[in-house]
TrEMBL record, chains A, B:
Summary of the function given for this chain in its UniProt record: Catalyzes the NADPH-dependent reduction of L-glutamate 5-phosphate into L-glutamate 5-semialdehyde and phosphate. The product spontaneously undergoes cyclization to form 1-pyrroline-5-carboxylate.
PANTHER family cross-referenced by the UniProt entry: DELTA-1-PYRROLINE-5-CARBOXYLATE SYNTHASE (PTHR11063:SF8), GLUTAMATE SEMIALDEHYDE DEHYDROGENASE (PTHR11063)
Catalytic activity annotation: L-glutamate 5-semialdehyde + phosphate + NADP(+) = L-glutamyl 5-phosphate + NADPH + H(+)
HAMAP family, sorted: ProA
Alphabetical list of Pfam families matching this protein: Aldedh
Gene designation: proA
Cross-referenced InterPro entries: Ald_DH/histidinol_DH, Ald_DH_C, Ald_DH_N, Aldehyde_DH_dom, G-glutamylP_reductase_CS, Glu-5-SA_DH, GPR_dom
Organism in which the protein naturally occurs: Vitreoscilla filiformis
Keywords: Amino-acid biosynthesis, Cytoplasm, NADP, Oxidoreductase, Proline biosynthesis
UniProt similarity note: Belongs to the gamma-glutamyl phosphate reductase family.
Lineage top rank: taxon: Bacteria
Protein name, as recorded: Gamma-glutamyl phosphate reductase
Oxidoreductase found in the keyword field: yes
Length: 429, 429
């Protein structure tokens, strides 16, 4: 099933690359039926995996505990029955989705007589580099299968036994459906040099998708010789306009900040129009105070919040406006109007997700158009910026770039459009 | 109007970059009316330019002749009244096209109540690096204006006086329409270090579009620190299937090869199914022989062509199958069937444009799906692979990559899609 454990990293990675490229050709022309059969077989094998999978996972858990990893890190490694059931269900959901590949759209007849349109095709081979959670192995494999791509997976060393066990299930499911086992390959060495090779083989790998900390992603982006679908930070804003439903704004702002503190789409900065500040700030301040959310304020905001019982207030510094806290902290600024709000977001934000809460239609439209972020929202919580919430069915990652894919990336981000010309013997004059 | 001639290249380029970034913000929210007014003003100013433009162009021509440039190279520099009229017309055609910016598509209501769609927005700032022909200055500037981007142009040193004169017209047209002059900037130095900076300022430039020889483009791609929309070689194939209208195939193949020899979409390699070879090869061979097209053949093709009077035949070597001749030379191979044809094209081709000539529908569909090229065609000349022929209205370049844009790239290649969420106070649970 798997290649021999590698000694010579460049040779080993080139072999993985060549096998992936060959498998990609087969996957690109695979039938929807075969791809869905592989996904359903994978779901079944995951549910039936039982003891061998649990034993492999236990090895990683034991090693992590021995190494003294923090409890939350150890928990992220756990392939509980619930986690396994969830990823199996994800495979079934993908099988139920329409096949994006082969669809021809936008066909137009040209004056010359030819018809010109575009066909959606796989990108080819993607490399995925991720940390800790072994369920990403199944998410990436299933997305590769459905999108007709091949992939090379490089998981974290702390999950290597779990990843190897999951990969065996993936390859068995591929073979069961008559598809090449090499469509999904796992890098079997934890040698870091393998990552260096994976991101520098344009002849074998078309795109790299890293998932992990900002440091990892910045390093990969700087060194990669192929395109990277990357997600850096999410310094998201919620802006309260002059004309606004205050009660609704309180509910949405509270959700955007406090529903969860760690996701990249949580609001980190609150901007409030001067005309709404007196009505809105003390009320949201009381909600934040009750939940222990520290507020780092501009002078105007601080003075309006000073009477809120139990409020943890601090003076915002310049660096606070750039900060992604991922914690119960929020920066708060009173602004003179929409222009200042938009300029502030475009200057200090990370172009991830920003929302305006307003009842003024022209302001809503200006905000949508002029805020240069991958998701722009009107009267909704920034927490909605997510592939599943957007109906993409599955999310391979989130892009903070503008090139190729932007924001939550689903199956389509793993495809490209080629031109199709249908003629009846036309020639160019 | 223009910045002082630069001495310190990094400082100068950073200043251009910062000005472009600021102008891009204004261009992104510019009205369709203002952008079209700038395009129409530019067309008018081009037509009225008269003597000063001709004098600037004459300087370049004189310098080129003095330097002993070959006559075709000197001709490409010439801003004849016809060339000027053509680029002016191009500006008017762009003004008449729909504005791609701001369009919201694919809006769907989600179970949570939010509506999710995508809005087309400009990429921001593009850098264009090109050689000799000064009309590219106007093409790039007009595409930047219509797509709401800013651009930094770096033309060839041999066209510097013409480019400076054209750029003055562009900036005057922008100002006349109330748009920032810095939306289009020209690098005023011919120092090569300026190119090195232009391609390595991700903070100011979002994408680089080179136009020129393969050497230039490979160098830029290797060194760029931002995405490059690049066009490398075009080794295009025409494949004659077993079931085919021979008369039509002769007309299309002749056009694909001989209508012009130098374009990237000219056919360079002819593949013929063994069952069609006897009927087709001697006839196309006679056409090629009459036009002086040398045929580099596999043994089977050579023997079938050996009786054609005046045919220039040679044995194809392995390197011939990879070759982009851009000349009256074609490689010819007899293949055993569609599988061999597809495998040959995917192995030796450059993934640019390939055509099947066939009356068999399943074969046509397999060719479209399985040939991994930016344009795939049925019963049409490969020479149709072109932004204007495809109805894009304008062509900023051709991409031989799969990422972002593939094949002929029009205005849409200079845009990206951001997510738009319209809510009524929804929160995430």
């Amino acid at each position: 099933m798997s290649t021999a454990t590698p000694h010579d990293i460049p040779t080993y990675m080139a072999a993985l690359g060549a096998q992936a490229r060959a498998a990609a050709t087969v996957m690109a022309r695979a039938s929807t039926r075969a791809k869905n059969a592989a996904l359903l077989a994978l779901a079944r094998r995951l549910r039936e995996a039982g003891e061998p999978l649990q034993a492999a996972n236990a090895k990683d858990i034991a090693a992590a505990e021995l190494a003294g990893l923090a409890a939350p890190m150890v928990d992220r490694l756990r392939l509980t029955l619930k986690v396994v059931a969830t990823v199996a269900e994800g495979c079934e959901q993908l099988a139920a989705m329409p096949d994006p590949i082969g669809e021809i759209t936008g066909v137009k007849r040209r004056p010359t007589g030819i018809s010109v349109g575009q066909m959606r095709v796989p990108l080819g081979v993607f490399g995925m580099i991720y940390e800790s959670r072994p369920n990403v192995t199944i998410e990436a494999a299933s997305l590769a299968i459905k999108s007709g791509n091949a992939c090379i997976l490089r998981g974290g060393s702390e999950a290597i036994h779990s990843n190897l066990a999951l990969w065996q299930l993936v390859q068995a499911a591929l073979v069961e459906a008559g598809l090449p086992a090499e469509a999904v390959q796992l890098v079997e060495t934890t040698d870091r040099a393998a990552v260096g090779r994976l991101i520098a083989m344009p002849e074998y790998v078309d795109v790299i998708i890293p998932r992990g900390g900002k440091g990892l992603i910045e390093r990969i982006s700087a060194e990669a010789r192929v395109p990277v679908i990357k997600h850096l930070d999410g310094n998201c804003h919620t802006y309260i306009d002059a004309e606004v439903d205050i009660e609704q704004a309180l509910i949405v702002t509270d959700n955007a900040k406090t529903q969860k503190y760690s996701p990249c789409n949580a609001t980190e900065s609150l901007l409030v129009h001067a005309r709404s500040a007196a009505a809105f700030l003390p009320k949201i301040g009381a909600i934040f105070a009750a939940k222990g959310v520290e507020m780092r304020c501009c002078p105007a905001a601080k003075s309006m919040l000073s009477d809120v019982p139990g409020a943890q207030l601090a003076d915002a510094t310049e660096s606070d406006w750039f900060e992604e806290y991922l914690a119960p902290i929020i920066s708060v600024k009173v602004v003179s109007g929409l222009d200042e709000a938009i300029a502030h977001i475009n200057r200090y934000g990370s172009h991830h997700t920003d929302a305006i809460l307003t009842t003024n239609h022209p302001n809503a439209m200006r905000f949508l158009r002029e805020v240069d972020s991958s998701s722009v929202m009107v009267n909704a919580s920034t927490r909605f910026a997510d592939g599943f919430e957007y109906g993409l069915g599955a999310e391979i990652g989130i892009s903070t770039d503008k090139f190729h894919a932007r924001g939550p990336v689903g199956l389509e981000g793993l495809t490209s459009m080629k031109w199709v010309v249908l003629g009846q013997g036309e020639v160019r004059s």
